[in-house]
């Protein structure tokens, strides 16, 4: 499938990722389809560190993860993921690979200086979503609820403006998803499985897009939400309701970062289905829903109704490039992008997780992985996700490498090595847009 997605558009057989475009526009938007970017073999300051970090994680990661104290493993996973993502970004160089990525013409930071009164911006947010208006929001701002823009406005207001600080936020929060996933896997399965998953999520190929896109930040928020929910329903903690409420607040905030993250409800339900006690699951559900509704209430009182934004953003979507991206290609090529983003270990791990017997037993990790898979299938069926899903689907796909923990332990080093080599080669052969 991956081979077909890259090769077929170049054989003039009528399989095109973009139609009705000039050669220049085609090169910009589909020249390296199914991955968004452009072909350019290159090395940079991050090449050697990426190779060293990746090889070290592949060769010694499983042994280290099995032996270090649990309290050390979680921050170690986060630190490794952070260093791995930053080194991959630095293959493209400081400005092109990191500091300048969130300052391009379609990104949030271009809109930040135009936001004066935050309350007024939220009240009038929906009215500026459609294109071809004098005051239309730029592409990424219009395509998301106001929470995404507000994040970067608030960052600027506290004196941390500019691309480097915005990139650092995305890097730190996005890479923390690896630690959150390890915490969740421990709650959903057991500590041994979580330790096995740690190297896979720490050096997953998804890191290529984590350091330099707001979707990395979104992924971190949702990963911690599910981790807190998993702890609430599967671990003996002092106040499971408080954990569930915190999860609800993060999930509520996530829906105001990205409209598509309403689909995170599917994995959240999977977590609840994995609960050891029905009563605990019901209490957690109630606490999470009430907390999420509190976030909704704040935005409603501020003047933004989510459903208005969602309906308008669909219109804006079809006003843009989406109308030139045929579903006949992207309906399946999206999954080729996912395969590149999660690596071979992630693909095989998902295949192992789709186990009817394990699902009938309500095994936590397979349930959540299937929930994530169902979410991206729904996103594809909506026809509102065509291209760029290696970035857009990060909140879902970052969980797939964790499923590689279900593979035979003696094979882990080889699967890790496959992922590391694939990520470095992909990042070196392509300059990804994010």
From TrEMBL:
The chain crosses the membrane at residues 41-60, 72-91, 164-188, 200-233, 253-273, 285-307, 327-351, 363-385, 414-432. Signal peptide: none annotated. Keywords: Membrane, Transmembrane, Transmembrane helix. This is Membrane protein. The keyword Transmembrane helix applies. The keyword Transferase does not apply. It comes from Mycolicibacterium sediminis.
């Amino acid at each position: 499938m991956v081979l077909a997605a890259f090769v077929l558009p170049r054989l003039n057989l009528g399989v095109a990722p973009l139609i009705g475009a000039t050669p220049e526009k085609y090169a910009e938007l589909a020249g390296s389809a199914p991955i968004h970017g452009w072909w350019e073999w290159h090395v940079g300051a991050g090449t050697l560190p990426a190779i060293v970090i990746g090889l070290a994680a592949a060769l010694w990661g499983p042994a280290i993860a099995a032996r270090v104290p649990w309290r050390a493993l979680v921050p170690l996973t986060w630190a490794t993921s952070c260093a791995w993502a930053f080194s991959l970004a630095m293959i493209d160089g400081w400005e092109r690979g990191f500091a300048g990525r969130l300052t391009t013409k379609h990104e949030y930071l271009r809109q930040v200086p135009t936001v004066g009164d935050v309350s007024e911006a939220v009240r009038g947010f929906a009215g500026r979503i459609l294109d071809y208006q004098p005051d239309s929001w730029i592409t990424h701002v219009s395509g998301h609820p106001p929470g995404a823009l507000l994040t970067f406005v608030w960052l600027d207001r506290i004196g941390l403006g500019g691309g480097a600080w915005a990139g650092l936020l995305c890097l730190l929060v996005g890479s923390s998803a690896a630690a959150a996933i390890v915490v969740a896997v421990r709650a959903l399965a057991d500590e041994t499985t979580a330790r096995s998953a740690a190297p896979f999520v720490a050096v997953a190929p998804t890191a290529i897009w984590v350091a330099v896109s707001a979707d990395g930040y979104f992924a971190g928020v949702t990963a911690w939400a599910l981790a807190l929910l998993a702890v609430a329903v599967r671990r003996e903690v002092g106040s499971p309701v408080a954990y569930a409420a915190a999860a609800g607040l993060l999930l509520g905030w996530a829906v105001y970062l990205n409209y598509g993250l309403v689909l995170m409800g599917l994995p959240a339900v999977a977590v609840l289905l994995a609960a050891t006690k029905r009563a605990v699951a019901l209490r957690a559900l109630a606490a999470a829903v009430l907390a999420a509704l509190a976030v909704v209430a704040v935005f409603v009182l501020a003047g933004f109704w989510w459903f208005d934004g969602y309906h308008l953003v669909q219109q804006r979507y079809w006003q843009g490039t989406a109308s030139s991206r045929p579903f006949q290609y992207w309906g399946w090529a999206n999954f080729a992008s996912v395969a590149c983003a999660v690596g071979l270990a992630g693909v095989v791990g998902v295949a192992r997780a789709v186990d009817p017997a394990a699902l009938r037993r309500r095994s936590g990790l397979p349930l959540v992985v299937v929930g994530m898979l169902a979410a991206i299938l729904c996103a594809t069926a909506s026809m509102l996700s065509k291209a760029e899903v290696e970035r857009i689907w990060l909140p879902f796909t970052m969980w797939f490498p964790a499923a590689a923990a279900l593979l035979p332990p003696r094979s882990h080093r080889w699967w890790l090595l496959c992922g590391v080599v694939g990520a470095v080669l992909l990042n070196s052969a392509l300059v990804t847009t994010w």
